[in-house]
Amino acid sequence: MSFKRAYMALCTVLLPFLVKAQYSKDTLGNIEIAASRNAQKDFMKTVSFDSSLMQTHFAGSLTDLLSQSSVYIKNYGPSMVASPGFRGTAEDHTKTYWNGIPLNSSMYGIQDLNLVPVFLLDGVDVRYGGASLANGSGGFGGSLDLVSGTRQSPVLGEIASTAGNFGTYKEYAAANYGGQKWWASTKAYYTTAKNDFPYINTFKWNTPKETEQDASMYQYGALQTIGFQATDKDLLKGDIWYQNSFRNLPQTMISNTNHEYQADEAFRANILYRHAEEHFLWETNASYVNEYLFYHNEISDINSHSWNSRYELKSEVHPYFTFPLRLQAGLQDVEETANIHEYNGLKTRNRPGIWATLSYPLSETWETAFDGRAESMDFKSPEPAFTAAIAWKPFKNEKLVWHVNGGRNFNFPNLNDLYWYPGGNPGLQPEHDWFGEMGLSSDIKTTSKSNLHTELTVFSNWIDDYIQWTPTGSSYWQAQNLKKVWARGAEGSLTYTQNLKNGWWQLRASGQYTPSTDENTKSGNGFDLEGQLINLPLFTAQGSAQVHYKKYSLTAEYAFTGARNTTDVQLPGFGLVNLYAGADFNLGQKTLLQVQLKCTNLFDTPYQVIVWRPMPGRYLEASVILKRMKN
Amino acid sequence: MKRPRLYRSPFSLLLLAILAVQGCKTKDTPHPAASGHYSHGVWIVNEGGFTYGNASIDFLHTDKDSLERDVFYNANNHYLGDVLQCMVPYNSQYYMVLNNSSEIVVAGQTDMKKTAVIDGFSLPRYFMPINESKAYVSSITGDGIDVLNLKTNSIASHIAYKPTKDSLWRGWTEQMALLNNEAWVCAVKRGKILIINTETDAIKDSVSLSIGSKNILSDKENHLWILCDGTLSLPFIASKLYCIEPGTRKVLQEYALPNINSGAGNLQKNAAGDSIYYVSGGVYKMGIHQGSLSAKPVVDGSGRNFYGLGISPIDNSIYVGDAHKFTQNGEVRHYTPGGRLIKSYTVGVGPNGFVFAP
Question: Residue B286 pLDDT > 90, yes or no?
């Protein structure tokens, strides 16, 4: 056993004993709850998707779900890559975690949101800026926390079938079974689509109407969760997620088809052991991710195979104190391995780290919090990251919260940046981010049946050593630490909810203003939008209206994406309206039939997220869901 | 009960938000009309960014020292295409090879009005007229040379070149030169020069050089100069410059460029044909009988991304395109023959070449 393996094993075993345990006021109860790191929500902006929104988008991908959030998604099209990039940062500055496991590819640095079905998920949290440090480093814009396999599902079993335009069919099935001692959850899915939507080709002469070619796809997978409550104090839980997808990659408006396709296969497994004592809670996690990607280009005769895998071992402890300090601390070790022809051999790297998060009330109205983290690459000198925060709650019932936080974050280069031949640069330094955020949120009970939630946040990210691929003056480009980027802005949201006798209705509106500029050149690219980095909108906004009455629901959504710079032209902004309608029918005491209708891009608006990549017009979809409830 | 007025209700906030962001939409920038007079100047070929569809051509009116931007769009109210690899004047027309659009756009030399589009290629690279009715087109993935019928503006036949499958883009053909009814064609990944009989359209011979052979031209003595870019080989090898006697196929001169990571490209010659120029970081000049590479560049390229190169046939002044990072407008820098900067111009994205209009 190597030194580093021995070190990690020792730390994992000894960690619970390194913390001096003290008397706890908390009861053990359901020990799942204690593991949440959302205690920092008041100090660092975190938004959770509610169950009604998850249900509305159950047949979609994470891309569809996040369209109603401030997370900007660079979507290349229905069967293409979609990656998040918010608060004016790049795609690999948003980290995605599934049950705590990092999903961003160690090779490319991104997670394709089109490959994550909402059906699998029980919850999604968006952590902004410094809040992402709770799970890991590198989330300059923030992180997405995906949760699945929770124990509380009221559904015993369900099957769902969806059909939509452009040859779209989706099938889902789920079962939740077991009792107090052990439980299990199984979810399986299959989706297929031709994606042969019509569009106006604005690049070609006379702007002909064309049909998207070579954009068909299929995807299937399964998620299995098993939990075992060995004793009142001991919990064992495991998740396995297998997914296989095939996507033809369509041509752009400006080029002929290359007859390209991409096949992805992913296997992800996670096992967790949690032990609770009166004075502390300890848990340890081991996870394994293996991903394979095959890319074929018939015209260029490219057949590219790439593999990457990741092992992660982490352990953390939550001691309970007699004084009101909340503390969690942990250790981790990640080993990443990747292989592709362009690396000239297998590449492996190891990333041990330590972290701690704590909060402490200074008075009845003031609280402080701190997240600290240090990670080393291959046991070289560690990179520190931290968020320090303070919150002011002038009212005991927490109707008004003001917070400010700031700190430092870092992002290690991905393996392509380091090793891709030609152009990869093993001498790259991590990117660094100095950030700050200030926010004010309020909950006002306007009447006995209505509530108004408002939130306003301003933020700033100063990113140094930004990695960029630049031409070398020869036939290849090289990765270099070049840019200094300043991403800053403001986000505001307003949610008004009113309860009805047999339901409720809600209005939401939110908007974001996010200048993100290259501070090396100052003048940006010399075009409009004040030097805004390419492919990032200056303005985005969302609005929705929902009514749930008895067993019926109706949702209207609007999302606006502002103009974006490309290399020499400006893509115009666009607004999309989506409608969702649902109805529940009881078929006996425990059996429920749900019908959902969905219409996206209601007004058939032509638009492009990425220049010359056509996007579908009006799309209709119908879903039938049959559920058997536990009680 | 008193009904709430609209402006006090949450609906009004939502409506206002939607109206506010809709108001942020931008309008298309109007394009000026093309002047229609394109003599006494220099065409600047801007290839654009790969997949951005923003290839363009600018015209520098040297007699008036004024730059006319985006001439093709302004003359045709239509985008040119994706990745403009080269522009060749022939028969009162310009033939513009659009690599990632896989087509050739033909336009009139006097007004830049589009007259034809030739498609059916597979990532074409260069166009070389053979005679009044025939031209050759090289390509990255076309496995050979497409033979064009210039009367019908269509592909008439294909000269297959498909070597053994052991490398990516193994059949990539690049620049061509015409000498004595022989077309000399660079076969990049093989490091070969294919020799094609232009009467029979058959490959009759080849010369083996270094991998990365991509530029070729003939000097005043009808010797062929070939530049091989070593960064097109994996792993990188030294870039090489060769001089060949076409009759005997013998290599007369051979030079290895010193910086293995810089690569080399854009081989050009002056009007007299007694000096050649190339870009390898900076711009280097070499007399055809110099006997060695020049140690110092005639134009220093430090801090720049020199891409296109052109030598004025009138005064041997040097035009260099700086592509910056391809994510913004490029720059053309005009130097005296000795390398002193005369003036610079902001041009389209990725200036990769120059065509001199008499």
Answer: yes
